[in-house]
């Protein structure tokens, strides 16, 4: 029954299904790459002529590259905010014991399972009356609350394997609680905080539904710009933008992994 | 480099209690450690040693009672203001810092200039014989080396009191013995007051000036190794320290004076306890003599059967079974011990070598002997 | 002082307050409006539940979500199973194929389906060349399901895998040695032990697909709208927060009851000792 080589009919069937899944999951994204180099204003696949004009358009048309800039700004700011807030929440939840802790935990984590549209109208309704809809503040606030639960989950799992005896040791050596956190606890839970941050960035960089409500022609994130483009016209710049998004996402994952590797080897 | 009388603090604990709900982890414990003394807290697992240490360190707040260091009540000070060195059972070295950075940590917290820190760290590494290992991370060090770093880190800031919670518990026997020697050496050279927690009586006997024996959140006895061995206050102490042959019964006044009425016979004793009391007689294995025929004199004696003989080089350890089924131990050398398994013998001792302790019903813990 | 309990409460308070103000206040506000806008009463819920067109949308949303969940389970189960039994190298391949789309923008993936499924697009032409013309998928619930399934498949596979890796394979060998055929051992021993993973994966996928917006808008059509589109329409075109709040309230209630149902369903299996899993 072992090994990867299909022998039984059941195994052959399973590999057949898995092959379909692999195609299903990867093929669509691979299709976009050639589309972005198309020479024509069409989604014709495969393209019959090739060019870089959609990339050129992306970087010269301000609606496109401004939205990339907004996305990066919102992504970085909301990632920073949710990393700080998420670490605080996870740390306090780990250290405090009280009845109703399950409720508070649910309060902090529930946005994770909220249907996107429900979050969107909830956020839009009040941000509108506060006049922060359509502002950078509004985007950062919305993306922060949407990614916060993921950071909390990630930091909590790091805290679960943290050796609390180390905090006692630091205190016995004269470190105040704040110094203990800065010099001992934080460096050791940093992997969890960073993974949470990576989640937060990717979530923010990917978010469409809430951003669609908050957007204005002046403050608009890249996925929103793509959405509007797809619904309004045939513009292969979307394919170029997709390729750029994939590159940014893969790059942020690779950078975190390299950072990881470096930390590991510098420790060793 | 130090004047021992100045670098150690005195520790006084009075009526210290800790309750977790209705469970008393520590029940009105009082003890003192003199300046520069090596005091061990010895007891079975769960007897309250760590709880005591945690309260001295400030990690746990007492339910009641007082802790004074050099006469000053410290219960209200947070742990990081107590200036007490601690060596943790699993070392608690900071895994993201090198050995040298670990040792520098307490000095930096005290705002010591960088250059002085480097000098002190080098000295400390030398003291624990780890010169040249400063750049290693904890996981690149062996258990024994980690233990040494933890020790250096706990004393480098010259605390007046050092607490150690089973610091050698995770090491193998050979390494333990080496480190025991070093701990003694460093204790003498620094003059710091040491409070050392262990559940290993041999370790406590080898290291300590005095030992406090813990059982069920109480102290059974405090004394030197010799006092505990020769004049145990309770049957628990007698069993826990060294090996013992123990006979329990009721004190009766016979023709020739006091005797203990036990299942194996009437055993003459010397004690201040009054007749009628329940009591236990403790006789150490090396005090027993072996006779081939029943003793005719007035010394206490008991018949027994040899179960096993273990040769330990210069002496041998003989396990015996009394007629009531309880077991005992003889240690000795020479002709008298030349017996074989299954042989019927008569064991005897001088009346002064028996020590009577009051009977107590709570006898738990990993006691040794009979 | 971080050790000070009061300070810990403060540290907890800040994120709770931020989430309270910037998220929960809005949720409470939209639910409140569903009962109070334009006037106090249940008219928003009544209007929703009494409109045949809107109930059809609700039914469609429900059915599409069930369909997505079923397809994810049917394809994800063998995939996750293979991940637990195959060689380390193939497992890495299977894992990477699941994780890469997981990290790739949802907008990008949905847009890719737009390009693939469009009339006269690549898939359409493949079908036409095979002689099965007129199978334009775009604009149908089928296209919506294809899009959502692709995005949610990784969630199903990871939930199943997290459960399956913990199963002690020796139990299967034991069943083998007791004379059960591999197929019988698989069905009688292995499958029951994966119930917690199946429940967790199905709950997650179902709840997430209930609220999908992008795929229905870009791959579906107004005639085949899903509830999320209806809600967005109420807000962005009619600015009717009361009606939108009522629909959101129903959607949320549906999602939460599915989560609760999942928890109840998974419990007996967990109590039998098959382990709590993600
Ligand atoms: N936080 C706590 N809550 C409840 N009981 C505890 C706690 N800490 C220790 N105890 C109990 O107190 C007793 C003494 O523990 P401890 O001081 O750790 O023993 P020792 O160090 O001698 O092995 C044990 O029975 C232990 O279970
Ligand atoms: Mg202990």
TrEMBL record, chain A:
In Swiss-Prot or TrEMBL terms, this protein is called ABC transporter permease
Family to which this protein belongs: Belongs to the binding-protein-dependent transport system permease family.
Q: What is its main location?
A: membrane
Keywords associated with the record: Cell inner membrane, Cell membrane, Membrane, Transmembrane, Transmembrane helix, Transport
Name the PANTHER family on file.
INNER MEMBRANE ABC TRANSPORTER PERMEASE PROTEIN YDCV
Report how it sits in the membrane. Multi-pass membrane protein
Q: What residue ranges are annotated as transmembrane? A: 12-37, 74-94, 106-130, 136-159, 180-205, 238-260
The ABC transmembrane type-1 domain covers 68-256
Q: Where in the cell is it found?
A: Cell inner membrane; Cell membrane
- Please tell me the species this chain comes from: Shinella pollutisoli
From TrEMBL, chain B:
User: Cross-referenced SMART domains, in alphabetical order?
Assistant: AAA (SM00382)
Catalyses: ATP + H2O + polyamine-[polyamine-binding protein]Side 1 = ADP + phosphate + polyamineSide 2 + [polyamine-binding protein]Side 1
Is the keyword Glycosyltransferase assigned to this protein? no
Which ranges carry the ABC transporter domain?
Answer: 11-241
Tell me, what is one Gene Ontology molecular-function annotation carried by this entry?
ATP binding
List, alphabetically, the Gene3D superfamilies matched. Answer: 2.40.50.100, P-loop containing nucleotide triphosphate hydrolases
The UniProt keyword set, sorted, is: ATP-binding, Cell membrane, Membrane, Nucleotide-binding, Translocase, Transport
Query: Pfam families attached here?
Result: ABC_tran, TOBE_2
**What EC number(s) would the UniProt record show?**
7.6.2.11
User: Which domain of life, per UniProt?
Assistant: Bacteria
As for what it does, the entry says: Part of the ABC transporter complex PotABCD involved in spermidine/putrescine import. Responsible for energy coupling to the transport system.
Give the record's family classification: Belongs to the ABC transporter superfamily. Spermidine/putrescine importer (TC 3.A.1.11.1) family.
This protein's assembly is summarised as: The complex is composed of two ATP-binding proteins (PotA), two transmembrane proteins (PotB and PotC) and a solute-binding protein (PotD).
Q: What is this protein called?
A: Spermidine/putrescine import ATP-binding protein PotA
Task: Name the source organism.
Answer: Shinella pollutisoli
TrEMBL record, chain C:
The principal localisation class reads membrane
Superkingdom of source: Bacteria
> What Gene3D superfamilies does the entry give?
MetI-like
Q: Specify one Pfam family.
A: BPD_transp_1
InterPro entries attached to this UniProt entry: MetI-like, MetI-like_sf
Stated membrane topology is: Multi-pass membrane protein
Keywords recorded for this protein, A-Z: Cell membrane, Membrane, Transmembrane, Transmembrane helix, Transport
Q: Please list every transmembrane segment annotated in the UniProt record, as residue ranges.
A: 7-27, 62-81, 93-114, 134-162, 197-220, 241-266
Q: Which family, according to UniProt?
A: Belongs to the binding-protein-dependent transport system permease family. CysTW subfamily.
Q: What is this protein identified as? A: ABC transporter permease
Its annotated compartments are: Cell membrane
What residue stretches are annotated with the ABC transmembrane type-1 domain?
Answer: 58-262
Q: Does the keyword Transferase apply?
A: no
């Amino acid at each position: 029954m072992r090994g990867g080589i299909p022998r039984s009919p059941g195994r052959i069937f399973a590999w057949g299904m898995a092959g379909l899944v692999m195609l299903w999951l990867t093929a669509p994204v691979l299709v976009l790459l050639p589309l972005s180099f198309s020479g024509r204003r069409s989604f014709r696949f495969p393209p019959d002529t090739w060019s870089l004009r959609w990339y050129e358009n992306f970087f010269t048309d301000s609606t496109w590259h401004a939205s990339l800039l907004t996305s990066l700004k919102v992504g970085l700011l909301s990632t920073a905010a949710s990393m700080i807030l998420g670490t605080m929440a996870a740390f306090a939840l780990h250290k405090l014991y009280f009845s109703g802790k399950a409720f508070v935990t649910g309060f902090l984590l529930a946005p994770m399972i909220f249907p996107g549209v429900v979050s969107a109208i909830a956020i839009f309704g009040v941000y509108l009356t506060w006049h922060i809809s359509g502002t950078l503040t509004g985007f950062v606030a919305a993306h922060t609350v949407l990614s916060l639960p993921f950071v909390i989950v990630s930091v909590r799992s790091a805290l679960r394997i943290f050796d609390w005896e180390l905090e006692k040791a630091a205190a016995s050596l004269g470190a105040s609680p704040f110094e203990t956190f800065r010099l001992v606890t934080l460096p050791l839970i940093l992997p969890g905080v960073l993974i949470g941050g990576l989640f937060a960035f990717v979530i923010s960089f990917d978010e469409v539904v809430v951003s669609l409500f908050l957007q204005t022609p002046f403050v608009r994130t890249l996925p929103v710009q793509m959405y509007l483009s797809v619904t309004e016209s045939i513009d292969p710049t979307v394919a170029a933008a997709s390729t750029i998004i994939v590159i940014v996402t893969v790059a942020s994952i690779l950078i975190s992994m390299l950072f990881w590797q470096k930390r590991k080897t510098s420790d060793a | 480099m130090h004047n021992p009388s100045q670098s150690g603090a005195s520790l006084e604990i009075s009526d210290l209690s800790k309750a977790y709900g209705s469970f008393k982890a520590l029940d009105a414990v009082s003890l003192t450690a003199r300046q520069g003394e090596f005091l061990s807290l010895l007891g079975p697992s769960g007897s309250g040693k760590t709880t005591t240490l945690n309260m001295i360190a400030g990690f746990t707040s007492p339910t009641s009672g007082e802790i004074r260091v050099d006469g000053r009540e410290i219960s209200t000070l947070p742990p990081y203001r107590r200036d007490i060195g601690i060596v943790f059972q699993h070392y608690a070295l900071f895994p993201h810092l090198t050995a040298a950075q670990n040792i520098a940590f307490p000095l930096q917290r005290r705002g010591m200039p960088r250059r002085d820190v480097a000098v002190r760290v080098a000295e400390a590494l030398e003291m624990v014989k780890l010169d040249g290992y400063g750049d290693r991370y904890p996981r690149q060090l062996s258990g024994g080396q980690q233990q040494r770093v933890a020790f250096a880190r706990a004393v480098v800031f010259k605390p007046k009191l050092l607490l150690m919670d089973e610091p050698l518990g995770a090491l193998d026997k050979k390494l333990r013995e080496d480190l025991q020697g070093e701990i003694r050496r460093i204790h003498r050279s620094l003059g710091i007051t040491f409070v050392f927690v262990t559940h290993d009586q041999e370790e406590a006997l080898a290291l300590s000036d005095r030992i406090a024996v813990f059982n069920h959140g109480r102290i059974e006895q405090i004394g030197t190794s010799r006092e505990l061995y020769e004049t145990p206050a309770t049957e628990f102490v007698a069993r826990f320290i060294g090996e013992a042959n123990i006979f329990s019964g009721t004190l009766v006044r016979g023709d020739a004076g006091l005797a203990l009425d036990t299942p194996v016979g009437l055993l003459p004793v010397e004690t201040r306890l009054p007749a009628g009391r329940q009591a236990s007689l403790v006789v150490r294995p090396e005090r027993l003599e072996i006779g081939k025929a029943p003793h005719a004199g007035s010394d206490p004696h008991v018949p027994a059967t040899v179960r096993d003989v273990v040769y330990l080089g210069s002496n041998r350890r003989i396990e015996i079974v009394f007629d009531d089924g309880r077991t005992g131990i003889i240690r000795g050398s020479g002709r008298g011990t030349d017996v074989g398994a299954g042989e019927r013998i008569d064991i005897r001792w001088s009346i002064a070598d028996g020590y009577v302790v009051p009977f107590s019903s709570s006898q738990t813990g990993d006691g040794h002997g009979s | 002082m971080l050790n000070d309990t009061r300070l810990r409460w403060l540290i907890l308070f800040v994120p709770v307050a931020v989430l309270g103000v910037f998220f929960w206040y809005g949720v409470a506000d939209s639910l409140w409006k569903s009962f109070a806008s334009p006037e106090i009463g249940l008219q928003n819920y009544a209007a929703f539940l009494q409109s045949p067109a809107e109930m059809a949308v609700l039914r469609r949303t429900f059915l599409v979500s069930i369909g997505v969940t079923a397809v994810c389970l049917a394809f994800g189960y063998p995939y996750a199973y293979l991940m637990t039994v195959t060689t380390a190298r193939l497992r890495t391949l299977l894992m990477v194929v699941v994780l890469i789309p997981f990290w790739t923008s949802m907008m990008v993936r949905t847009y890719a389906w737009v390009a693939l499924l469009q009339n006269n697009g690549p898939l359409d032409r493949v079908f036409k060349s095979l002689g099965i013309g007129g199978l334009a998928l775009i604009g149908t619930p089928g296209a919506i399901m294809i899009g959502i399934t692709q995005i949610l498949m990784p969630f199903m596979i990871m939930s199943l895998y997290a459960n399956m890796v913990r199963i002690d394979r020796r139990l299967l060998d034991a069943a083998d040695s007791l004379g059960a055929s591999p197929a019988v051992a698989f069905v009688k021993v292995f499958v029951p032990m994966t119930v917690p993973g199946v429940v967790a994966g199905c709950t997650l996928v179902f709840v997430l697909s209930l609220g999908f917006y992008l795929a229905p808008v870009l791959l579906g059509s107004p005639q085949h709208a899903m509830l999320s589109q209806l809600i967005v329409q109420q807000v962005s075109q009619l600015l009717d927060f009361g009606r939108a709040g009522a629909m959101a309230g129903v959607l949320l209630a549906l999602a939460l009851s599915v989560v609760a149902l999942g928890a109840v369903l998974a419990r007996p299996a967990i109590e039998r000792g098959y382990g709590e899993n993600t």
